[in-house]
Amino acid sequence: MSKRSLLAILIVSALVTGLSASGAAAQTPSASGESGKIVFTMGLTSDMVSPNPYKACCVPEYETLFLGYDQLFNFSKDTLEATSGLADYPPEVSADGKTWTFHIRSGVKWSDGVPLTAHDVAFTFNFIWDNKLAIFNQYLGYPESFEAPDDNTFVWTMDKATTSPLAPPWLPIVPEHVWSKLDGKDAKTIKEFKNVPAVGSGPFHLTAWKPGQYWTMEANKDYWGGAPYIDEIMFKVYDNPEAMKLALINGEIDAADALPPEIFQQLQGQPNIGTNVSNANAFDNLAFNFEGTADPSLQNLKVRQAIQYSIDTQSLVDRVALGYASPGSSVVLPTYTQWFWQPDSSQAMTFSPEEANSLLDSAGYKDVNDDGFRETPSGDPWSLEVLTISDLTYSVPEGKLIVGWMNDVGIKTSIKNVSTSKAYDLWGAQDFDMYVWGWANEPDPDYTLSLFTKSQCLWWSDGCYSDPAYEKMYQEQHLATDLEKRKAIVTQMQQFLYEQVPEVVLDYTKDLQAYRTDRFTGFTPQPSPVGAIFFAFGSEVWLGIKPVSESQQAAGSGGGGTGVPVWVWIALGVVAVIVGGAFVARRGKGSEHTE
């Protein structure tokens, strides 16, 4: 062994000792496959249901859509108000409020190099409306036509004036040259289109998806909004949040989303790890099914109200969310204060087993054989089932408590625990009694309110609930051009839903996220400073994420230091000189994103 080799080993040994003494070694974003490729790895515990925009279900798909496709408008990172996106904001509106003209950006290209024009925009809107794709058509108001008179102009004409286009519609613009082959097909055929790799115009495009394991998105370096600093995002799916936590601590991933509170607290104060608590950006619900195989007892208002009274929402907040939530009431989040309504003390159906028992007795559901559980009014055995979703943060622990409380008031109830993908199938088949799931809200309440209309049955409605009085209010708020009048109607609608209990809003939850500060920087909540960093509103947060510079790493500054003493870096430099480049610092592998 040469003296040079021996000296190199000694110094490398000292380096390893220094790293061990200073905590986990920082890993900078590194080559993954291709030399110099900067990969950001995001960890999550839920996989995509489908990469097809028209089968999108949940948060993983919507983040992928935001990254892969442009929309007419974007969301302001500070206020969530509409800003220019693929089209200039605001659009031109005719005096009668029925014709909206959008000026589409020039020079935008799809990820396969084909130019994007206003004709693609018109195709997207017509494709959704003509093929009755209810996943997005609620955004379209009362359309008369969608036209593109030239490559840079899109004209949206309605037969009734509406406020719909004022809010950024979560509606991805898709390429006509890819999707036109599906135009006129049945909805099932459209939804089953694989769409991998995907052709989009956003800052990243989907390149691969291995269900249950990961999906990857490659940067669009020609993106009109500016090239991303990172080359690829990998979303990596974990079987459980504990494994995801360890991967973050060990530097195997760069960020983690939807962390359970107890694990989030364990990450706080860890070296080189930053944490973020968002404002309330979603609500959990116990949704009732009114169609399919659902138990007919759920059609009874007194039964639904009794279930509401049997649930201790404050206990859910304290015991499951550990305080990172607040008790729920309305389907509109308190975050959006101009729209939010909540019941006063005289209206509130708060935890009261006594009231639950009284309602069930009056509805004819009594324990006639003294076995501790109630029978139907006709004397038949009565039991219900709650569907819980294994890869969601709160669904299982909340479901267990809810089932216990329902049993306490004599409703024989059991749990069926499934994955998100299986829950999606059971939901589509209306094959459940109740489930513990949830919804994220948009800044404008229209879409959330549409979930309880007949048109959303078998699309986005939880359980196909509808009511003529509610339908009338929905149309009235949809057409109200006076903001104060619309607010008043939206308030009435929230109160109506609370009293009729098509679902129990359990709690308003905050997203708990963590990330490595020694590898990347530029993590900005949306809206700033109280929102979520990832899985927020649009792609802008991803455009700001960049690798921590070598000078920041050496100084332990900028988004968190490496935790490596200065003498170790000196030793590393000596090694580089002595070995003559045989031992060089390599960029560490970037982490993956899951949700």
Explain what this protein looks like in three dimensions.
Mean pLDDT is 86; it is low at 1-28 and 556-595. The chain has three domains: 1-63 and 202-272 and 517-595, D-Maltodextrin-Binding Protein, domain 2 (3-Layer(aba) Sandwich); 70-191, Alpha-Beta Complex (Dipeptide-binding Protein, domain 1), CATH 3.90.76.10; 280-510, Roll (Dipeptide-binding Protein, domain 3), CATH 3.10.105. Strand 8 and strand 9 form a beta hairpin. Strands 1, 8, 9, 10, 11, 12, 13, 14, 15, 16 and 17 form an eleven-stranded mixed β-sheet that branches. It has a four-stranded antiparallel β-sheet with strand order 4-5-7-6, covered by helices on one side. The protein is an alpha+beta fold and 595 residues long. Helix 1 packs antiparallel against helix 19, helix 9 (301-310) packs antiparallel against helix 11 (353-362) and helix 15 (468-479) runs antiparallel to helix 16 (483-500). The protein has 19 helices and 19 strands. The protein has helices spanning 3-21, 59-68, 118-130, 134-137, 176-179, 187-191, 241-249, 261-267, 301-310, 313-320, 353-362, 395-408, 420-428, 446-450, 468-479, 483-500, 540-544, 550-555, 566-578; strands at residues 39-44, 73-75, 82-84, 92-93, 99-103, 143-150, 153-158, 204-210, 214-219, 232-237, 255-256, 273-288, 325-327, 383-389, 412-418, 434-440, 503-516, 520-521, 546-547. The relative contact order is 0.18. The chain starts with a helix and ends in a 17-residue tail after the last helix. The longest helix has 19 residues, at 3-21.
